[in-house]
Amino acid sequence: MLRIRLRREGAKAQPFYRIVVAEQEFPRNGRFLEVIGEYNPRTEPTHVKVDEARALTHLKNGAQPSEPVARLLKNLGTLERLARLHKGESLDTLVAEAVASAPKMGSMKTRHDDKVGVASKGKSKKAKAKEAQAASA
Questions:
Q1: Structural domains in the chain plus CATH codes
Q2: How far is CA 116 from the centre of its chain?
Q3: What is the pTM of this model?
């Protein structure tokens, strides 16, 4: 049975996920048939991107989403569009609607950026110390 689920990637304590279609028996990070999206819970706002056409095709053919993926698809409106696809609406119309309603990705920052602070993004501590000495002299 095909399953749409999350495949963990990224460094230790910094996960991001690919949304993949895989056989239910395959390991979490093992073989998969196709990557249909990505999910990064560490950004603000959370980044979710799904290829609607492929997701709807697999769901229509009987693939079952895992619980986390089902929540993501519900929030994106994909499950509602699947119900409309079953009622007879065309796939092209639904995909065009999904593209139009997709949130626009502006500047995203990770939650880690707040912890690190501006010092690591800008000048080093030594450079700031030199500027402070030059200003006081």
A1: 2-136 (3.30.1320.10)
A2: 23
A3: 0.72
